[in-house]
Specification:
Elements (H helix, E strand, L loop, with lengths): L20 E3 L16 E11 L2 H12 L4 H15 L9 E8 L4 E7 L13 E2 L2 E2 L2 H5 L10 H12 L4 H4 L1 H9 L1 E2 L2 H15 L2 H7 L12 E3 L1 H13 L2 H4 L2 H11 L18 H6 L3 E3 L2 E5 L2 E5 L6 H15 L6 H22 L10 H4 L2 H7 L36 E2 L2 H4 L6 E7 L4 E7 L26 E2 L23 E5 L2 E7 L5 H15 L4 H6 L3 E2 L7 E4 L1 H4 L2 H8 L3 E4 L7 E5 L5 E5 L8 E7 L2
Parallel strand pairs: 19-20
Antiparallel strand pairs: 1-8, 2-13, 2-22, 2-23, 3-4, 3-14, 4-9, 5-6, 7-8, 10-11, 11-16, 12-15, 13-14, 16-17, 17-21, 18-19, 21-22
Helix pairs in contact: 1-2, 2-6, 6-9, 7-8, 13-14, 13-16, 13-18, 14-21
The structure holds glutamic acid (GLU).
The site of glutamic acid has 15 residues, from loops.
Length: 610
C-alpha cells in the first residue's frame, strides 16, 4: 500500500484543528526525487514486512532498540491503525501467531471481535428474513466488541519485552505529524465517501472541508487517534474497555452519529459497557499439521484458516505426487481446496459454541478417503458436499451440525477482495510473529468514534445468516459468539527450524492465497518474493467449474492447460497482499512484502547483507 516516504510538506496549519485535518500538497521536487522502499530485504538481526513503509520502519525502530518480534509487531500494527485505518486498528480485532524461541513453542492469540451479550439472533431478522446485507454493513448491529487493544496488551504482557506505552510511540508520532496521502489511501477514502458523509465524525476526520477525499500528496493527521493512543499509553487497556473510550464506543454503536440531513437507515446496536469489560483475548493452541516434511502452525477456530489449509495440503500430500506436471498439480490443488472449503463451511465455528470434528478433518486417513476424486482428470462442475470426518475423530468429542441448505454466506465469502492487513516480524533471538488484523470491510462500519479517531469494525457480517431465524448453522450469530474468520497467519518449520512465516488480507481468499503461496514456494520451489507475487487463483467450492482468478492467472499457460481439464475462471481483480519472512539455513532472513497489489508494501531487515 504505502510506498511513499514521509512527506516533508507537513504544515503547522493543521495543529489544533478539529478531529482530523490535512493540508494540501506542497510544491515539491519531481517524483523522480522520491525513493520507493523495497518490498524485499535480506539480512540478519530480525526483519519486518508490512503493507506500509511507516509501519515497517516502526517495527525496525523497535527491533534496533532491542525490542523483540512481538513488540515490533504491535508497534507496526499501531502505526497501521493510523496509516491504513480503513483496514485495521483498535476498532477491530485479529489473530497473532508467535514462535517463542526460548521456549521452542508456538502460541496463538485470538482477539477476534465478539457479538454483544444482547445480540439475539432475531435482531438480525425482519419479517422472517435476514436483514439486508447492505444495511448490516453500516449499522450498530454489525459492530463486534473490538479485540485489538487487549490483543496488543496481552501479547506484550505475555511475550513482549516492551510496554504498550513504549511501542505506541511511533504511532503517536505518525498520527501527530501526519503522513502523505497516497493513491491507495485516496482511493479507499473515495470508495467510502457516501458513508463518511453520513456520519459527522467520519466526515470530519477523513474528508476535506468540501466533503471530498484529501488529494494525493496532502498531509493527513489524526490528532484524535494520537490522543487515544496517549490515553492508552497512560491508562493501559482498561481505559479502552472500562473507561472513557468504552463509553464513547457504546454511545457510537447505540446512537450512530448520523450527520444532519443524512437519509441512511442506520440500525443501532445493542453493545453495553459490560460487553467491553468482559472482553477476553484468548490464548489457543495452534492447529498443527505436516506437509512433505514441513510442520505448519496455523490459527484454530474461530479462525478457519488453519484447518482448511491443513486439510488442503493433506489432500495434496495423499493424492498429488511430485511427479505431476504443474497443470495437473494445480488441478488437484483446486479440487482439494474445493473439498476443504465444503468441510470448512459445514463444520467450523466458534469453539465455545460448536464442537467441530477437527481431529477427524486433520487426520491422514480422512484425507486419503476424502480426496479419492482428486485423481480424476476433469474439473468438478458442481459444489462438493461435506465429507464425513466423524469416523476419524478418535476419542475427541464432536457433534454433527445440522447445516441448513440455505444460508446467506458471511461477508468474507461474498466479497473476495476487501481489506485487512498482515504483519510479519522476526528478531535476533529467533522469535517470529505472523499477525493478521482487520476491521472487516474497507472502512469497517464507516463510523468513527467521535473524538477518538478510529473506525468501528463490521466484523459481525462474518456470521452466516440461515434463511430461517431458528435454523442451525455452525457460524450463525449468537450472543457472545465470535464470527468465523478466514485470517490465516501461518508459521512453517522443518526439523525444528523455522522456514517461513506469512499471511494475507482478502476475506475468504486469504486461505487460498496463503495456500497457493505455500504451494508455489514449497512445491514449485519459487523464491518467496516470487511466490507471493505470482498470479492467483481461488477455488472455494463454487457451484460450477469456475474458480476466481486474477487477470494475469487467466492469461497464463497454466490456465490454458487447466481449461483443457474443464476448469473455467472468473476475473475478480487482484487478490490479497501477502507479507512473509523466509528463514535461511545460514541464519539470514528474507523479509518480503507484496510488490504491487494495494500499492505494494515494504520489507526491511536490521542488518542488510545484500
Ligand atoms: N473479516 C475477514 C475475516 O476475518 C477478513 C476480511 C478481509 O480480509 O478483507 O476473515
Amino acid at each position: 500500500m504505502r510506498r511513499l516516504l514521509f512527506s516533508v510538506s507537513a504544515s503547522l496549519l493543521c495543529l489544533g484543528l478539529g478531529p482530523g485535518c490535512a493540508t494540501s500538497p506542497a510544491p515539491r521536487p519531481e517524483a523522480a526525487a522520491r525513493t520507493l522502499p523495497a518490498s524485499t530485504a535480506t539480512g540478519r538481526g530480525g526483519g519486518a514486512a508490512t503493507v506500509d513503509v511507516r509501519a515497517t520502519s516502526a517495527a525496525l525502530e523497535v527491533l534496533r532498540s532491542g525490542g523483540n518480534a512481538v513488540d515490533a509487531a504491535v508497534a507496526a500494527a499501531s502505526v497501521l491503525g493510523v496509516t491504513d485505518p480503513y483496514s485495521c486498528g483498535i476498532g477491530g480485532g485479529g489473530f497473532l501467531v508467535a514462535y517463542l524461541a526460548r521456549e521452542g513453542r508456538v502460541v496463538t492469540l485470538d482477539h477476534r471481535e465478539t457479538a454483544p451479550a444482547g445480540l439475539e439472533r432475531a435482531l438480525l431478522y425482519e419479517n422472517g428474513a435476514p436483514l439486508p446485507f447492505g444495511e448490516l454493513v453500516t449499522s450498530g448491529l454489525s459492530v463486534g466488541v473490538p479485540g485489538s487493544l487487549l490483543g496488543w496488551s496481552e501479547a506484550l504482557r505475555r511475550y513482549g519485552s516492551r510496554s504498550l506505552a513504549e511501542v505506541l510511540q511511533p504511532a503517536i508520532r505518525v498520527a501527530e505529524q501526519g503522513f502523505e496521502v497516497d493513491a491507495t489511501f485516496h482511493e479507499q477514502t473515495r470508495h467510502n465517501v457516501e458513508r463518511f458523509r453520513d456520519f459527522t465524525p467520519s466526515a470530519a476526520l477523513f474528508l476535506g472541508p468540501d466533503g471530498r477525499p484529501w488529494p494525493v500528496g496532502a498531509t493527513f493527521k489524526n490528532p484524535g487517534l494520537a490522543r487515544t493512543y496517549r490515553l492508552v499509553a497512560e491508562g493501559g487497556a482498561p481505559v479502552f474497555y472500562r473507561g472513557e473510550i468504552a463509553r464513547a464506543i457504546v454511545s457510537t454503536v447505540t446512537r450512530p452519529p448520523l450527520a444532519p440531513g443524512a437519509s441512511r437507515t442506520v440500525r443501532p446496536g445493542v453493545m453495553r459497557m459490560e460487553d467491553l469489560a468482559r472482553y477476553e483475548a484468548i490464548v489457543r493452541p495452534p492447529v498443527t499439521s505436516t506437509y512433505r516434511g514441513y510442520t505448519l502452525y496455523g490459527m484454530g477456530s474461530p479462525g478457519s484458516g488453519g484447518v482448511t489449509l491443513a486439510l488442503t495440503l493433506n489432500l495434496l500430500e495423499a493424492h498429488a505426487p511430485a511427479s505431476l506436471s504443474r497443470a495437473e498439480f494445480l488441478h488437484r490443488y483446486l479440487e482439494a481446496s474445493r473439498l476443504a472449503f465444503a468441510d470448512r463451511n459445514a463444520f467450523l465455528g466458534d469453539p465455545a459454541f460448536v464442537s467441530a470434528p477437527e481431529a477427524g478433518l486433520l487426520s491422514r486417513e480422512y484425507a486419503v478417503r476424502r480426496g479419492a476424486t482428486l485423481e480424476g482428470t476433469r474439473a468438478s462442475t458442481t459444489a462438493a458436499l461435506p465429507g464425513n470426518p466423524f469416523p476419524h475423530q478418535g476419542p475427541a468429542r464432536a457433534v454433527l451440525p445440522r447445516v441448513p441448505e440455505v444460508a446467506r454466506p458471511a461477508a468474507e465469502e461474498q466479497v473476495p477482495n476487501k481489506e485487512t492487513t498482515h504483519i510479519t516480524t522476526s528478531d535476533a533471538a529467533g522469535n517470529i510473529v505472523a499477525y493478521t488484523c482487520t476491521i472487516e470491510g474497507e472502512g469497517g462500519n464507516g463510523m468513527v468514534v467521535p473524538g477518538y479517531g478510529f473506525l468501528l469494525n463490521n466484523e459481525l457480517t462474518d456470521f452466516d445468516l440461515p434463511a430461517a431465524v431458528d435454523a442451525p448453522h455452525p457460524n450463525a450469530p449468537a450472543p457472545g459468539k465470535r464470527p468465523r474468520s478466514s485470517m490465516s497467519p501461518v508459521l512453517v518449520f522443518k526439523d525444528g527450524a523455522p522456514v517461513l512465516a506469512l499471511g494475507s488480507p482478502g476475506g475468504a481468499t486469504i486461505i487460498t492465497t496463503v495456500g497457493q503461496t505455500l504451494v508455489n514456494h514449497l512445491d514449485f520451489g519459487m523464491p518467496i518474493e516470487q511466490a507471493l507475487a505470482a498470479p492467483r487463483v481461488s477455488q472455494r467450492n463454487s457451484p460450477d467449474h469456475r474458480s476466481q482468478a486474477e487477470p494475469a492467472f487467466i492469461a497464463s499457460p497454466e490456465a490454458a492447460a487447466l481449461g483443457e481439464l474443464g476448469h473455467g475462471f472468473t476475473d475478480v481483480g487482484p487478490m490479497g497482499a501477502l507479507t512473509a519472512i523466509r528463514f535461511h539455513p545460514d541464519g539470514t532472513v528474507t523479509a518480503a512484502a507484496e510488490p504491487t497489489r494495494r500499492g505494494g508494501g515494504s520489507a526491511m531487515v536490521v542488518e542488510p547483507v545484500k
